[in-house]
Design goal:
single chain, about 625 residues, alpha/beta, GMP Synthetase, Chain A, domain 3, 7-stranded mixed beta sheet, 5-stranded parallel beta sheet, 17 helices, about 30% helix, binds coenzyme A, binds adenosine monophosphate
């Protein structure tokens, strides 16, 4: 069957299609049906089946005789080490960790926050939770203590598992002090913390609260897998919305395993035993789906890479990893390739390595610009496949399903809708638009297995954020179009979310932090185009009357404030003091016009603008930062 037939089969009979896909994973009790639509527009998949996530990702491969197969390769140019873990070793390590967590009272349904860098122990912690039916919530290391505290208060974990430190080029990230800071800020207190001590920095353990990762496993009985219902939450992953309060995306156990397992063969064209490398971070959805659960459930070898595409030590690192480990499929964000291209534009380092194992490069996380795709294709000589998805969906909404049929690549498009996704372009009134017309991208409900069923303890917010604008549809928050051949084009976000180096950030969240500065009366943060990171945040600050602190000092304070409150990952370094912000007569800040000015693009004078002269002031302000007309 080709793509069109497979897509139609899923559309015509979703139950039959997804029950067939469900045969790819192991069940303690198979579900009676795939789709549970009794509470539409809230949908669930495989709700009455019983299974275990860790069994599927680990134990079943050992049972099938593949215990000696490498499950995880940890390659860390930042520490100069490489380490391989077989499925059998992984099973022992995870069962032991789960046993220790169980001995301290962690059980099915308890939340566990994981705050760890790119080490295999991060995956082991996730899998140990899955083994017990505990719900993990991994927090990315580039967030500050305050962001961790917000997540602690939202999901109220029984336990937090953290590493003593992470390593960024040129500096150690002090995870344990960040964790202590977060616990001091949070209202909720976990019962205990497990600290994985890394040799690069051994952390102080708080008597009575913190236990050592190895020591607390001593003498405990390994834990067996606890079967859970298909709709039992496997994890909560927080993502940026329009405000500083992140959204806790819930992932149910069965749907995500079925969808990820299906995608490994049908989308990524992998076979069990082959090496898959998602160069992302366990703190992001790509890390959950394609560093941990997808490749492991399917029986592949996954690469956990602790390094950067450039500078660790050079722009040839990715090629070295591909050669050393025989990577068949690499998945990363376009920004990584832009960084490599900037350091090695002629691809001189590519020739130093044997890349014959590599068959495909998949890109996602942000718009893949044609220059980057063409450069990657020319250097690597393999198909470069853009695919589009979100934390909410957990796997691709659109892509080129190489395992089914290699569709022609159209540069600039992440190709076609994946089976189960009925993607449509809608006008403001919710009416489907003709091919080639720009509009809001929505997916007709129900979404396929693996996608979010709700937000953690925030069903109303889930309905309001995703389901209410276009009844009967899931609103993606992206705008774009579909061409005559059904190829999608993703143009921009329709909300206050920006994308910085493949990291999703909320400008609204940054504005909340800036507004808390005692001398800032009003502010706006926009996303400006950046040749490396795709977008960068830029802040405009209006000060209170009578403030005589020099503007540079306030800007410096504000940059520090965002770094301290949100984290270095916000990459907030551009800010400027202005007298006023451009607004409509009804008081709405004209952010879209400000973006055009900062990007040096032509713009139409908004008809509703309060005072057009302010736009000249904004143009001057962005020029002082080296943007706008100054760029041209
Ligand atoms: N823990 C702590 N700090 C982190 C971090 C982590 N896991 N990840 C990033 N940071 C810090 C960086 O050190 C940097 O700090 P600095 O301001 O002190 O330099 C800051 O957050 C911004 O990071 P980033 O935007 O990633 O920029 P960079 O200059 O460090 O690297 C790239 C630029 C392009 C090389 C890098 O962004 C990259 O490899 N991107 C790949 C994208 C990716 O993996 N996306 C995930 C979704 S698929
Ligand atoms: P995240 O939830 O962090 O994965 O971010 C999801 C958002 O990133 C999407 O809503 C898009 O705005 C953007 N995005 C992800 N993949 C792509 C892609 N292939 N092309 C364009 N934008 C993308």
């Amino acid at each position: 069957m080709g793509y069109a037939e497979v897509y139609q089969a899923a559309k015509a009979d979703p139950n039959a299609f997804w029950m067939e896909a469900a045969k790819g994973i192991d069940w303690d009790e198979p579900p009676s049906k795939a789709l549970f639509d009794e509470n539409a527009p809230l949908y669930e998949w495989y709700a009455d089946g019983r299974l275990n996530g860790c069994w599927n990702a680990v134990d079943r491969h050992v049972q099938a005789g593949h215990g000696d197969r490498v499950a995880i390769i940890h390659d860390s140019p930042l520490t100069g080490t490489t380490h391989k873990i077989t499925y059998k070793e992984l099973q022992d390590r995870v069962a032991s960790l789960a046993g220790a967590l169980k001995a301290k009272g962690v059980e099915k349904g308890d939340r566990v926050i994981i705050y760890m860098p790119m080490v295999p122990e991060a995956l082991e912690a996730m899998l140990a939770c899955a083994r017990l039916g505990a719900i993990h919530s991994v927090v990315f290391g580039g967030f500050a203590a305050n962001e961790l505290a917000v997540r602690i208060d939202d999901c109220t974990p029984k336990c937090i598992i953290a590493a003593s430190c992470g390593i960024e080029p040129g500096r150690v990230v002090h995870y344990k002090p960040l964790l202590d800071g977060a616990l001091a800020l949070a209202d909720h207190e976990p019962e205990f913390c497990v600290i994985f001590q890394r040799e690069q920095e051994v952390a102080h353990l708080e008597e009575g609260r913190d236990v050592d990762w190895h020591a607390f496993q001593y003498g405990v009985a390994p834990a067996p897998c606890v079967p859970v219902e298909g709709n039992h939450p496997a994890y909560i992953l927080y993502t940026s919305g329009t405000t500083g309060q992140p959204k806790g995306v819930v992932r149910h156990t069965a749907g995500h395993l079925v969808a990820l397992n299906w995608s490994m063969r049908n989308l990524y064209d992998m076979n069990p035993g082959e090496v898959f490398w998602a160069a992302s971070d366990v703190g992001w959805v790509v890390g959950h789906s394609y560093i941990c659960y997808g490749p492991l459930t399917f029986g592949c070898t996954t690469v956990v890479f602790e390094g950067k595409p450039v500078g660790t030590p050079d722009a040839g690192t990715f090629w070295r990893v591909i050669e050393d480990h025989g990577v068949k499929c690499l998945f990363t964000a376009p920004t990584a390739f832009r960084a490599i291209k900037r350091d090695d534009p002629g691809g001189a380092l590519v020739g130093d390595y044997d890349l014959s194992s590599l068959e495909t490069l998949f890109l996602a996380g942000e718009r893949a610009d044609p220059d980057t795709i063409e450069w990657a294709q020319a250097q690597l000589g393999v198909p470069v496949i853009d695919h589009w998805w979100q934390t909410e969906t957990g796997w691709a909404i659109a892509g080129n399903p190489l395992g089914i049929e290699k569709l022609p690549v159209k540069i600039g498009s992440p190709s076609v809708a994946m089976p189960g996704y009925d993607v449509q372009i809608l006008d403001e009134g919710g009416h489907p638009l003709k091919p080639g017309t720009l509009g809001a991208i929505a997916v007709k409900l129900p979404l396929p297995p693996g996608t979010l069923p709700t937000l953690w303890q925030a069903e109303e917010r889930y309905r309001k954020s995703y389901l209410s604008h276009f009844p009967g549809y899931y609103e993606t928050g992206d705008a774009g179009m579909i061409d005559e051949d059904g190829y999608l084009y993703i143009m921009a976000r329709t909300d206050d979310v920006i994308n910085v180096a493949g990291h999703r950030l909320s400008t609204g969240g940054m504005e909340e932090v800036l507004a808390a500065h005692p001398e800032v009366a009003e502010c706006a943060v926009i996303g400006v185009s950046d040749p490396l990171k795709g977008q960068l945040p830029m802040g405009f600050l209006c000060l209170n009357k009578g403030v005589d602190t020099p503007a540079e000092e306030i800007v410096k304070d504000c940059v520090k404030l965002v770094r301290d409150r949100i984290g270095p990952v916000a990459a907030f370094k551009l800010a400027v003091v202005v007298n006023r912000l451009p607004k409509t007569r009804s008081g709405k800040i004209l952010r879209a016009t400000m973006v055009k000015i900062a990007d040096g693009e032509d713009y139409k004078m908004p008809a509703t603008i309060d005072d057009p002269a302010i736009l000249d002031e904004i143009a001057e302000a962005v020029k002082s930062l080296g943007y706008g007309a100054a760029r041209g």
